[in-house]
Amino acid sequence: MPGYLTRNIALRIGGRDYAIRALSDRQQYADPQGHAERAGISSALWCLFGQIWPSGQVLAEAMSGFDVAGKRILEIGCGLGLSSLVLQHRRADVTASDHHPLAESFLQHNARLNQLPAIAYRDLPWEIPDARLGRFDLIIGSDVLYERNHATLLSALLQRHAKPRAEVLITDPGRGNSSVFTRALALQGYSVDEQRSRFNESDDPPFRGRLLKYQRGMAAANPA
To answer: Does the pLDDT of residue 222 top 90, yes or no?
Structure first.
């Protein structure tokens, strides 16, 4: 690829092998037209979309067995699109989104690598409302709470794009911002189920990583 180096990574998710094109390391950077700079992405953060992260693998594994039948799904901050690839393989109704100028090209290349149809994609800066995007039954994301203000931005995004009866699934490596996000979603009527999870082999209990599942409007539809 012009201006940066890539590599192919083999991953096994949900009993299936996936080939993923990723940046070769965290030193890669290329923004000759200034697209990333205009999007507010610094040179230090530019490469982050193009890596495989433990939280992304945890989310993808969760999506390999999650109930997705009949649900419209949005992945936020998709990066290389691992979870969206898993959902596309399951023939789910998924839209991937990110704001990195190369995210879509990597996503579609990875779809082709895995003999999958092209995945619906939307450039989605979190702070800018998108009236055309509509609402979703399930919204997912991995390691999307890595800055303090992200909890506020994402809770506002969910208010715009989650259906009244909705689920949200977030994997978080323990950056310390999830409690603010949980409180914001509680004000929107969500309950939370928090599971501590091992994000890599070096993790020891009690794990810092969390699998956060939020639900709204489920009790009325599924009475005990």
So the answer is: no
Query: What is the per-residue pLDDT for 114?
Result: 98
Nearest to 185 by CA among 149, 141, 152: 152
**Secondary-structure percent of the chain, ordered helix, strand, coil, rounded to 5:** 30, 30, 45
> Please, which pLDDT band fits residue 220 given cuts at 50, 70 and 90?
very low
Is the pLDDT at 219 greater than 70, yes or no?
no
Residue 15: C-alpha distances to residues 12, 99, 183 (Å): 6, 30, 35
Average pLDDT over residues 39-47: 94
State the Cα–Cα distance between residues 142 and 171, nearest whole angstrom: 5
Question: What's the half-sphere exposure (Cβ side, CA atoms, 13 Å) at 95?
Answer: 18
Sorted by sequence, the CB contacts under 8 Å of residue 189 that are 6+ apart come out as 216, 217
**Cα(187)–Cα(193) distance, rounded to whole angstroms?**
16
Whether the model clears a pTM of 0.85, i.e. scores above it, the answer is yes
CA-angle at 147, arms to 40 and 42, nearest 5°: 25
CA distance 151 to 187: 13
The span from the CA of 97 to the CA of 160, in Å, is 15
Please count the residues of the chain: 224
**DSSP letter (8 states) at residue 206:** S
